[in-house]
């Protein structure tokens, strides 16, 4: 007759063996399901084929054209920190934007800035930014034009806030993310055709 202790021991060993078999057959996956679309994202949480998905048939982008959504941001320290982080994101983005974007990519960048001007978490800044975009629409025809356009727009904000202008010839060194991208290759402001050339380009260029 088997003792109660022996029975429990055998049961535990069997349970452990079962668990080990299940773990071996189904190794844990770091893939996860997108809670909105239900689509399964790959290991590391990144879709494997970032650039292979075809653009969807052009649907009108809703919500791009409306007014400012966010309230006033009263805290000056928070406003400045938010600004620095956002400029960093925006400049890095335009400096990684394609050299020869497709129409879809151009639309995406233009819409991004217009949506930002509605959703930027500092309402009074967003309001100013909306007026700025109306006067100087986003330049999206290439990495160079987008980067220089943004640099000039940032300088317009700098001027309004009584800050020193930034020399757009230093975009490459200031925003070198170590990503290995082709630099813009602007060595001096004369490469831009003079001090205000970028602003001029914004008016006349694409
Ligand atoms: C869209 C937007 C609108 C804003 N509107 C307002 C506003 O209405 N009122 C307000 O008080 N604040 C506003 N801000 C925040 C403001 O622009 C600054 O971010 C904040 O005052 C902090 O300034 P900073 O001196 O630290 O440098 P930032 O202007 O934040 O710049 C950060 C760094 O970027 C670099 N830089 C500076 N100029 C350029 C340029 N032209 N091109 C590339 N790099 C540059 C410099 O290295 C600088 O140290 C806005 C920010 C954004 C993103």
Automatic annotation (TrEMBL):
Pfam families the record matches: Evr1_Alr
Keyword tags: Disulfide bond, FAD, Flavoprotein, Oxidoreductase, Signal
Cofactor section: FAD
Domain ERV/ALR sulfhydryl oxidase, chain residue ranges per copy: 75-175
Superkingdom as given in the UniProt entry: Eukaryota
MF terms in GO: flavin adenine dinucleotide binding; flavin-dependent sulfhydryl oxidase activity
A GO cellular component entry from the record: mitochondrion
Enzyme class: oxidoreductase
Database matches in SUPFAM superfamilies: FAD-dependent thiol oxidase
Catalytic reactions on record: 2 R'C(R)SH + O2 = R'C(R)S-S(R)CR' + H2O2
Span of the signal peptide: 1-33
Keyword Disulfide bond: yes
Enzyme Commission identifier(s): 1.8.3.2
Alphabetical list of PANTHER family matching this protein: ALR/ERV, FAD-LINKED SULFHYDRYL OXIDASE ERV2
Protein name: Sulfhydryl oxidase
Organism: Mycena belliarum
């Amino acid at each position: 007759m088997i003792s109660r202790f022996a029975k429990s021991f055998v049961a535990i060993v069997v349970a452990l063996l079962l668990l080990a078999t299940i773990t071996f057959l189904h190794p844990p996956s770091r893939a996860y399901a997108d809670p909105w679309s239900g689509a399964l994202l790959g290991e590391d949480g990144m879709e494997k084929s970032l650039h292979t998905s075809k653009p969807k048939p052009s649907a009108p982008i809703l919500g791009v054209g409306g007014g400012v959504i966010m309230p006033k941001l009263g805290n000056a320290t928070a406003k400045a920190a938010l600004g620095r982080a956002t400029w960093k994101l925006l400049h890095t983005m335009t400096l990684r934007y394609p050299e020869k974007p497709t129409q879809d990519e151009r639309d995406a960048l233009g819409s991004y800035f217009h949506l930002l001007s509605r959703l930027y978490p500092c309402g009074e800044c967003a309001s100013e930014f909306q007026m700025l975009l109306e006067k100087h629409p986003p330049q999206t025809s290439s990495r160079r034009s987008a980067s220089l356009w943004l640099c000039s727009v940032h300088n317009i904000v700098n001027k309004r806030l009584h800050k020193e202008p930034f020399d757009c010839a230093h975009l490459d060194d200031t925003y070198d993310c170590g990503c290995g991208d082709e630099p813009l290759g602007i060595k001096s402001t004369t490469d831009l055709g003079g001090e205000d050339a970028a602003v001029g380009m914004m008016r006349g260029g694409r």
